[in-house]
Amino acid sequence: MSSVKRKGDVASHHAKSAYFLTFKLDLIKTEMIRRANGVYRPACGLDVRSLRVLRIVCDTPGITTTALKEQTLIEKTLLSKLLSDLIDRKLVRRTIHPDDARHFQLWATAAGEKTRIASDELGQSLEAEMLSMLSQDERDELNRIVDKLVDVFRRSASGEDAKPAA
Q: Which residues, other chains included, contact 66 with Cβ-Cβ below 8 Å and sequence gap of 6+?
């Protein structure tokens, strides 16, 4: 009879935690990006990835493509295509790096800054809507936990001490 109970316990455990956290996070991310793209594309003409690139260029004037790749976590070939599109749309401009002509620096244009501001306002309302089933305290706690994990993983990836800050 104990073997029957164990099988039941195992089945009960699997039903409670049917998926690993990484799968659940991926599911949430995929659905949030799908919904955001449905709003961003008609409003701004850009998708989430392009806006991620634009936001970092706006926040880090003169950033190199290498540093941008590290910050966006976007594969080099795709990042190149996204940048070409942003440059063609005159949202980003590039200049030759003054210290090394083999590298470019990236700068947001006035139109890029304007697009970023509009997309940020839209993004804040989208995020609030998508997380509306959570209380403000729950949203604050979720952000605190995610920020902690991001900090630990980024420090670990860069070779720094990966212990979380208290």
A: 103
